[in-house]
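Thread: quick sanity check before group meeting

JM: Hey all, I'm pulling together slides for Thursday and realized we never actually wrote out the predicted structure for the chain we discussed last week. Dropping the sequence here so it's in one place. If anyone has concerns about the input, flag it before I start.
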Amino acid sequence: MRDVLSVPDASHRRTAETLRRGVVHMARQLRRLRADHGVSHAKLSVLSRLHRAEGPLTAVALARLERLQPQSLTRILAELHERGLLTRRPGETDRREVLFEITPAGRALLIQDAKQQTIWLAAALEAGFSETEASLLALAAPLLERLAAMPIAPD
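JM (edit): ok, ran it. Output follows.
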C-alpha cells in the first residue's frame, strides 16, 4: 500500500476528483435535511465522536481526534454539557483529568439528526437506482467509511 501523501497515478486522480465532487455534493444534500435543533456541525461531530468511542474521552483526546484547537473544544464541550448532551467527571486515576461521555439525550439528538437523512437516502436508492446499482452502493459504503478514516498526515 502506498503512503497516502505520495502522488497518485492519473487514473486514481480522476477517480479521486469524481469521488470528491460526489462526496461534497452529498454532504450539502444531507446538511439540508438536518433536524432543526440548533446544534452546530462542530458540536454534532463531537457528540458523534463520543457516541462511537469505547468509553469516555478526555478533552485532549477529543481535540486530537476532531482536529480542533483546545480553546474551541472547551466552548463546544461547555455548551453540550449545559444542554445535557454530555456528562463530565473527574478521571479515575488522575482526578485533575476530566472525562466526557455522551448522555442518552445526546444519543437521541444524533438519532433525530440522522433520521431524515437516512429516510431520504433510502428513498433515493429505491427510486433512482437499479437493484444492481443499489447493491454496488451497499458494497461501496463501508469502503467510503474506510477512506474517510485514512490519516491526512502520517502519525
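AS: nice. The CA atoms of residues 93 and 99 lie 11 Å apart. Strands lie at 57-58, 86-90, 98-102.
JM: adding both to the slides.
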